[in-house]
Design a protein that fits this description.
This protein has 2 domains: 120 residues, Beta-carbonic Anhydrase, Chain A, CATH 3.40.1050; 34 residues, no CATH class. Helices cover 41% and strands 16% of the residues. It is built from 8 helices and 5 strands. Keywords: Metal-binding, Zinc. This is carbonic anhydrase.
C-alpha cells in the first residue's frame, strides 16, 4: 500500500538526475496523428513500436476497449481537441485481439460493485435516471465490429472536418501484427 510513496521517491530521483531530458519533445510534431486505443497494459510499449510512433509523434487516447462510446464523451472531446488545438490531421482507432472488453459480463461487474459496498439503492437510482448500466458496461462481441463502430462515431461527428481520414485497425497483442479494418483514405473519397 506504499505504492504512492515509492513512486514519489522514485520521481524525486528522476527529476534530480534530470532523467526527463531524454523525453523532452514538442506538443507539435511532424506526424500529426491521434490514436484511440485500449488501456490494456500489453499495448503500452508494443503499440507505438508496431506503428513506428516516436515519443511526441502522436496523441494517444487510452480507453477500455478503444470504444468511442458517446459522440460527446471525453474520448471524442480529446479527438476534437487533438485536431483543432494540437494539429492532428489523421485519426487511428486501434482495437486489439484478446481484449477484456470482449468478455466482460455487466451483471457480474454490477455484482462486484455491490460486493465492494455500492448499494443496490445507488444502482437502482442510476437505472431509474435512465442510465442502463448493463448496456454502459457491455463491451463488444467482435473487435472488428467495435472498431468499425468507433470509426463511424468519429468520422461522422458533426464537429470533425470531413477531410480528416479516420482509420480502423486491430493489433495482435502477442505479435504486434496489425489488421486493417477501415482504410480512412478510401472512406474519405467515397
Amino acid at each position: 500500500m506504499d505504492r504512492l510513496y515509492d513512486m514519489l521517491n522514485f520521481n524525486s530521483e528522476f527529476v534530480e538526475k534530470k532523467e526527463f531530458e531524454k523525453y523532452k519533445t514538442s506538443r507539435f510534431k511532424d506526424r500529426k496523428m491521434v490514436v484511440v486505443t485500449c488501456m490494456d497494459s500489453r499495448l503500452t510499449e508494443l503499440l507505438p513500436k508496431a506503428l513506428n510512433i516516436k515519443d511526441g509523434n502522436s496523441k494517444i487516447i487510452k480507453d477500455a476497449g478503444a470504444i468511442v462510446l458517446h459522440p460527446f464523451g471525453s474520448v471524442m472531446r480529446s479527438v476534437i481537441v487533438a485536431v483543432y488545438e494540437l494539429n492532428a490531421d489523421e485519426v487511428f482507432v486501434v482495437g486489439h485481439h484478446d481484449c477484456g472488453m470482449s468478455c466482460i459480463d455487466p451483471v457480474q461487474t454490477i455484482n462486484k460493485m455491490k460486493d465492494n459496498g455500492i448499494s443496490s439503492d445507488t444502482i437502482e437510482t442510476l437505472e431509474s435516471s435512465g442510465i442502463n448500466l448493463q448496456q454502459w458496461l457491455h463491451g463488444f462481441d467482435s473487435v472488428e465490429d467495435s472498431v468499425k463502430g468507433s470509426v463511424d462515431t468519429v468520422k461522422n461527428h458533426p464537429l470533425l472536418p470531413k477531410n480528416i481520414p479516420v482509420h480502423g485497425l486491430v493489433i495482435d497483442p502477442e505479435t504486434g501484427k496489425l489488421d486493417l479494418i477501415v482504410d480512412g483514405y478510401k472512406h474519405k473519397e467515397s
